[in-house]
């Protein structure tokens, strides 16, 4: 287990976990996900947490606290070295359900498929993924016609 140590004074040491999230945060930084999201969604100078930082936080959250609701998000992040993972000045209480919900709404309005494609292509470029062969999941089932039910119409 990795940890981040913040020394406020020689007698007051604060220890916060990074766990596996430090590796994932590093990969997110390498592909430039935060900047890409910020360019797509835009930024307001009064925001304490940019849309890209909120997305990064949600990705990290999804790797450890998947059954938690959005209002529990600050409590989850309180146990981690939030500033180390997300950026200087980012405190857990800034990652509240209102901010995260607004970011999710903005992403939806901008088009999730296009955003995913841009981020995936950035990862492909950064890590030199060979695209000479691809896998397409064709296991989806499609049904045409009417269902026969005993319920009245």
The main pleated sheet reads as: 2 strands, antiparallel
Total count of domains: 1
Mean pLDDT over the full residue set = 84
Low-confidence stretches: none
What is the count of β-strands? Answer: 2
Roughly how many Å is the radius of gyration? 20 Å
Please list the strands of the largest sheet in the order they lie side by side. 1-2
Strand content: 5-15%
If you had to describe this structure to a student in words, what would you say it looks like?
- There is one protein chain.
- This protein is mainly alpha-helical.
- The protein has one domain.
- The protein has helices at 21-31, 33-41, 51-62, 73-78, 82-86, 97-110, 112-127; strands at 3-9, 12-17.
- It has a two-stranded antiparallel ribbon.
- Helix 2 packs antiparallel against helix 7 (112-127).
- The longest helix has 16 residues, at 112-127.
- 19% of the residues are buried.
């Amino acid at each position: 287990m990795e940890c981040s140590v913040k020394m406020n004074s020689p007698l007051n040491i604060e220890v916060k976990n990074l766990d596996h999230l430090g590796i994932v945060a590093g990969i997110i930084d390498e592909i430039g996900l935060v900047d890409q999201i910020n360019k797509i969604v835009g930024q307001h100078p009064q925001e304490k947490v940019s849309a890209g930082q909120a997305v990064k936080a949600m990705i990290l959250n999804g790797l450890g606290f998947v059954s938690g609701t959005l209002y529990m998000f600050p409590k989850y992040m309180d146990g981690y070295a939030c500033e180390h993972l997300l950026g200087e000045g980012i405190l857990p209480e800034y990652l509240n359900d209102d901010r995260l919900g607004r970011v999710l709404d903005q992403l939806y309005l901008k088009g999730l498929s296009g955003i995913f494609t841009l981020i995936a292509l950035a990862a492909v470029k950064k890590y030199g993924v060979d695209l000479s062969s691809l896998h397409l999941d064709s296991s989806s089932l499609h049904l045409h016609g009417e269902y026969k039910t005993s319920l009245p119409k």
